[in-house]
Amino acid sequence: MTASDVQTTAEIAYFSMEIALDARMPTYSGGLGVLAGDTLRTAADLGIPMVAVCLLHRRGYFRQTLAPDGEQHEAPEDWPVEELLEPLPGQVTVAVAGRDVRLRGWRYEVRGCRGHTVPVIFLDSRIEDNDEAARAFTDQLYGGDARYRLAQEMLLGLGGVRMLRMLGFGAIRRFHMNEGHAALLTLELLEEQHRGNGHNGVGEHEIEAVREQCVFTTHTPVPAGHDQFPLELAAELLGRGRAPKLRDVFAIDVYRQVLRSDDRFSLPRDALDHDLMLNMTYVALNLSGHVNGVAHRHGEISRLMFAEYSVDAITNGVHAATWIAAPMAAVLDRHVAGWQADNYSLRYALAIPLAEIAEAHAASKRDLLEHVATSTGRRLEPARFTLGFARRATAYKRPDLLFTDLERLRAIARRHGGLQVLYAGKAHPADEGGKALIRDVHAAAETLREDGIEVVWLPDYGTALAAKLVSGVDVWLNTPLPPNEASGTSGMKAAMNGVPSLSTLDGWWIEGHLEGITGWSIGDSGAGAGGAGTSDDEALRARDAASLYDKLEHAVLPCYLEGGDAFLTIRRHAIALNGAFFNSQRMLQQYLQRAYA
Ligand SMILES: *Cc1c(COP(=O)(O)O)cnc(C)c1O
To answer: Does the pTM of the predicted model rise above 0.85?
Structure first.
């Protein structure tokens, strides 16, 4: 294939460190990548001229196996790149610490429901001419040390823009950074301005020209989620080197200028620890014309965190046709014509007979329990109430909240026909606390088993398993400590499948929750906002656990066990009220109106 075979008319370039496109491609770790994939599928459906850029991640994130006690083991996840992607012609180079790293591209095509396609370009440094260290730069998602990660972000941001230009994408008017990992693309755009003005320095005019092109979506209020690198390391990798080039030196100067030169660009006073750090969030904030958080509450929190910037909120959504399981999709096909092309019409699920919703859900539950049996040997009871909890294993998500008071949980299960709980999720390899939580849940599961409460942690959480879980459990449990969950999207997937959430009021659930109508809340939404200090965490935990038990005992289980229409009506509301809004079509249309326009 030649460069001219690549359709290069895209106007919006979407940059993401991870993208989930195909269950065979482990080019994602979690919600950020799934959101990117859903965004691109939606752009293809709507015919939006978009192109996406990501790193190849030849060795994936990691494959998780679990020992009987819940200890997590990690292995590389190699995948057949050559079978799934098409090689693109040409190469670009990025100087990392003064040494040129060559990059080539691989193309994946996302095809929409009306045939429009969105190309995704994966950058690959595994090229003969690169030295061994450079060849490994595009191997592992979120792997390595700070130097490795910064090199990756340079390849994504600088290399990504260069690759698009080399391939002939000449109509791009917006560069969308899906999280700060791609923030260095602003540097390449500044350099383009610098070249364009005859190398006459970079001033307000050039910076404004870059801002007009850039859109930044921030995804987490958790400080560790905001990438930063020591300025010294940044200077070494971006600038000084064996054979410094003028523009590399210039690059660092620009950052000093943008980050510190005058009031307009200086760092907020409460962020002094950024002083000797290159903070990707601030780079993106400073150089983007539109900045947004991913749910209304997250927008509010982000405006507190970044008080000197204007931060919009566009609530996340999920791709309905991807996430609604086959049995429920067939029901929708019968009753809501065209729901895939027009997700707003999911509203009319209100007219679907409850019995059909019951049957479709029962089919997905059987499918899920079959999967549990074949993958773990554990046989769960199809008629028994089943909770699902699947997300990254990390402290603020509190996967162990359900086990705060085992006696109370036992009593509830005894009185209400038993309980089954399915878990899944990986802990980042460096997150020891997250790994300990997986072991804690295993330990609780062991003692509860004697009392007839089945708790199973399914290994190697990914999109295929997510699709089974969100459609097959009875209620989706979510217990983040507010306000740490920016949005969350798995509960949206569950809702579209008629699986209501039981969740703390955080992220999207503040918007999606109608008590006893679309699901149930745990605790209230106010207490955590403004930042829960660690000393309060235990008190909040006790309060939220009590609320969780109360809701299970007095609302959720009685409703489920009553066996009439009440629970099915909640399933139907989840599809109609939440599905019609928390979808990626509505989300992307809001990006079009507010960020891309
Ligand atoms: C949807 C999804 C997520 C994100 O869900 P959260 O609710 O944000 O945790 C993460 N991982 C996978 C595999 C998913 O499908």
So the answer is: yes
